[in-house]
Known about the structure:
Layout: H1 3-14, E1 21-27, E2 30-36, H2 42-48, H3 53-76, H4 80-103, H5 108-154
Antiparallel strand pairs: 1-2
Helix pairs in contact: 1-4, 3-5, 4-5
Amino acid sequence: MAINHILLDLEVIKQLEDYDKLGVLTLPGSTKLCVDSFGYRSSITRWYNNYNRETSIGYIEQLITNIEKISDFIISGQHNEEGETLREAIEGALIGLEKLKQTYISDSIIVARIILIINKLKNLSKNLKNFTNNTYNFINEIENANNANINTSISPSN
């Protein structure tokens, strides 16, 4: 799964508001998440579009697996900017997942699955943050060492 598709799904999750639900759109050649906004007719549109919580949570669980794979690729390949972008997207999606958890508060199994998803995402975010912080610290150390070398080579000798 390409990182852009992952970022798009995380952005959709981020857009969840109180009592909104997710839907999984199955189109020819692709599957996408969408926000099903809370309203009086939402149960009818969910039935008509065949949206259900089991499919939505299953989709998110697969998304987490894909995020784990791309995170490993980012960290092993030293892709700092992508790591920071993914971390920020994960942080935004966590807010939406907390709202989704409240939407399904009466369904203990779905809530438990969402909690597991949230915990995995928090862990992935932490790993990406540590990776980018360590990389930036390493770059700063190199720059400081280079600046020190430049200053000692420029300073006049007595």
